[in-house]
């Protein structure tokens, strides 16, 4: 449970970093400017982005080509802020600390 929560927080921290970058860029440009996920990936590590499509198409049998073009390529066009924050919130919620409640059994015999 702690690992899922940590991964969720890492996603949220990355989303906050992207939000700060987007705010600074928007202030400089004078209009709202959100970086796309594919553009962010390109700036962070260009080679892995270029290798990802053929690797997924080749190494994931049957669904590899289908997985890249309609799904992953669409996600790469979405704003990185939303693509990073959605799984972050979901993981933090799924792996949240739950309070244990004591069950009191009333046995009337």
SSE blueprint and pairings:
Elements: H1 2-29, H2 37-44, H3 46-59, H4 64-75, H5 80-94
Helix pairs in contact: 1-5, 2-3, 3-4
Task: Provide the descriptors you would attach to this structure in a database record.
flat; mainly alpha; 0% strand; 109 residues; single chain; 2 domains
Total number of helices = 5
Helix and strand succession? HHHHH
Low-confidence parts, pLDDT < 50 over ≥5 residues?
Answer: none
**Cα gyration radius (Å):** 20 Å
Distance between the termini: 40 Å
Beta-strand residue percentage: under 5%
Shape: flat
In which range does the helix fraction lie? Answer: over 70%
Biggest sheet descriptor: none
Chain-averaged pLDDT? 91
Task: Determine the structural class based on helices, strands and strand pairing.
Answer: mainly alpha
Total strand segments: 0
Q: What's the structural domain tally? A: 2
Any overview of this molecule?
- The chain has 109 residues and is mainly α.
- It has two domains: 1-33 and 81-95; 36-78, no CATH class.
- The protein is 71% helix and 0% strand.
- Helix 1 (2-29) runs antiparallel to helix 5, helix 2 crosses helix 3 (46-59) and helix 3 packs antiparallel against helix 4 (64-75).
- The longest helix has 28 residues, at 2-29.
- It is flat and about 70 Å long.
- The protein starts with a helix and ends in a 15-residue tail after the last helix.
- The mean pLDDT is 91.
């Amino acid at each position: 449970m702690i690992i899922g929560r940590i991964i969720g927080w890492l996603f949220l921290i990355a989303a906050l970093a992207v939000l700060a970058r987007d705010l600074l860029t928007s202030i400089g440009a004078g209009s709202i400017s959100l970086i796309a996920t594919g553009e962010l990936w390109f700036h962070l590590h260009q080679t892995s982005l270029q290798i990802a499509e053929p690797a997924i198409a080749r190494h994931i049998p049957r669904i590899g080509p289908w997985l890249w073009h309609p799904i992953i390529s669409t996600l790469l066009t979405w704003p990185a802020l939303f693509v990073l924050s959605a799984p972050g919130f979901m993981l933090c919620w799924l792996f949240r600390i739950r309070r244990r409640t004591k069950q009191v059994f009333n046995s009337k015999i």
